[in-house]
């Protein structure tokens, strides 16, 4: 028994020591990743989604004065630089120097660079018009590209990750609106929002996958099925899976923090 405890204890000590000794990435490494991966551009693109949601929510307010106050509060609280700082902090804590070095190599060279740059087209301010033009021209992926894109969506769990970010964004905006418009507590507002979000969850996820296929078809129209396939394969690796998890969690943390600031702005 003593021997078993000793072995277990030593194993735990070794695990902790290894964890503590892992060198953390530098700020420059984190920023290099956020730029090359398109993460910074995706945060900049959140303003488009927020503008769309703002218009939907404001339409239900009726009172023009409330609408104007709401739009002003949203715009003043949307500090994208602060959101990037939150994400950068999360990345620096959750990735080791070695992991981020490998990721930076992946997103800056070869297939990784090609695909990340292609993905960044989806954050252009006029992306909706560009996709409409793409569809209007009758363009579509080849069967091989379609299969590779479907595999990429599966390997990256893109449907669920996209839904999680969108629903977090919705919660971040709806809760403070309810607190302000209905005069309820944060707890009550959160409960009401949770019920509404849960109701739309399944429908939203079913709608997202076809949209992702269309978006990726546009973004990767100049990429070969082989390149898309290699990109998808990266996300079957442990590092690829960790990247997806950490980035998604970091975005949700940043959006939630922004939601708290919006609540404070609307309460004034």
How widely separated are the two ends? 63 Å
Helix content: over 70%
Low-confidence stretches: 1-7, 9-21
Task: Give the biggest beta sheet.
Answer: none
What gross morphology would you assign?
globular
Structural class: mainly alpha
Number of domains: 1
Organism: Thalassotalea agarivorans (Thalassomonas agarivorans)
Keywords: Signal
Protein name: DUF2059 domain-containing protein
Describe the structure.
The protein is globular. It has 268 residues and is mainly alpha-helical. It has one domain. It contains 13 helices and no strands. Residues 1-22 form the signal peptide. Keywords: Signal. This is DUF2059 domain-containing protein.
Write the layout of secondary structure elements.
Blueprint: H1 2-21, H2 27-36, H3 39-59, H4 64-77, H5 80-94, H6 97-108, H7 110-119, H8 127-136, H9 143-156, H10 158-182, H11 186-219, H12 225-234, H13 238-267
Protein name: DUF2059 domain-containing protein
Signal peptide: 1-22
Keywords: Signal
